[in-house]
Design goal:
mainly beta; Immunoglobulin-like; 5-stranded mixed beta sheet; 2 helices
């Protein structure tokens, strides 16, 4: 027993330390402090992901086809994938606003309705060329991952030869001017328009053809002089002048009434 008791005393002394002293016991936290520290750590671990969370904007469909001149809008649905901590305002912008229009241009999402998709309407803007085109719609917000929608715009314009006036009345020996061009903007192609009278020896046309270059100002016109020739008969003439161009442009006919002066 004398060998065992000192060991016990030493063990107790090492664990408990002297009362009121600054031994090992003073450096060890009590149970309440340990529980509080663990609770704080758990709270910090839970809060960290929320603080670093990035909001992602979702747009469906990812691509959309629009038709020029259509009054029926294409629809894109926008929502948030992640719940925000406060309201998020999403801006809707077009890469080329001359190609299409978007309404509305902003959407607001709250923490309670972030997952409810909101509709955005898009219309293709009518232009004067015959070329299909494309642009993009971007939905963005500060600190959020944006969404992009590709817009394919189909052109439905019908290209025609433009002429003014659309009819002439001439006396024999007199002249009048026609303004000749195209009803659309040429993108990269030149067009030659030929003017042919219906009856030889009755009219002269100067020049007999015009070329519209793709580098010319849009919707530009060229002047053509039409002259009614004197003839030996005493009859008024009902003539036509046909304007045509190679390719798929439809021909245009200008009626010309010629009054005989004999």
């Amino acid at each position: 027993m004398r060998l065992w008791w000192p060991s016990v005393a030493l063990l107790v002394s090492a664990c408990s330390g002297p009362p009121g002293g600054s031994g090992h016991d003073a450096a060890m936290p009590d149970a309440a402090s340990a529980d509080a520290a663990l609770a704080d750590a758990a709270s910090t671990d839970r809060a960290a992901p929320d603080a670093a969370l990035q909001i992602t904007i979702i747009a469906t469909p990812p691509s959309l086809t629009l038709t020029e001149g259509s009054v029926t809008p294409g629809l894109v649905m926008i929502r948030l994938r992640d719940q925000p901590g406060s309201d998020v305002v999403v801006d809707l912008t077009l890469a080329d606003p001359t190609q299409a229009s978007v309404a509305p241009t902003q959407l607001r999402f709250t923490p309670s309705d972030f997952a409810a998709a909101q509709a955005v309407s898009l219309l293709a803007i009518q232009d004067r060329n015959l070329v299909s085109s494309s642009t993009t719609l971007t939905a963005s917000a500060p600190g959020a991952a944006p969404a992009t929608v590709t817009l394919q715009i189909n052109d439905q314009d019908d290209g025609v030869i433009a002429v003014s006036p659309t009819a002439l009345a001439l006396d024999e020996g007199s002249s009048a001017n026609l303004q000749v061009g195209l009803s659309f903007e040429t993108a990269s192609t030149d067009f030659t328009i030929t003017l042919a009278p219906s009856l030889a020896g009755k009219l002269t046309v100067t020049p007999s053809s015009v070329t519209i270059l793709h580098t010319d100002p849009p919707l530009s016109r060229q002047t053509v002089v039409v002259t009614a020739l004197d003839d030996a008969d005493l009859v008024d003439d009902a003539l036509t002048l046909t304007l045509s161009s190679p390719g798929n442009l439809p021909s245009v006919t200008v009626p010309i009434a010629v009054t005989d002066d004999d």
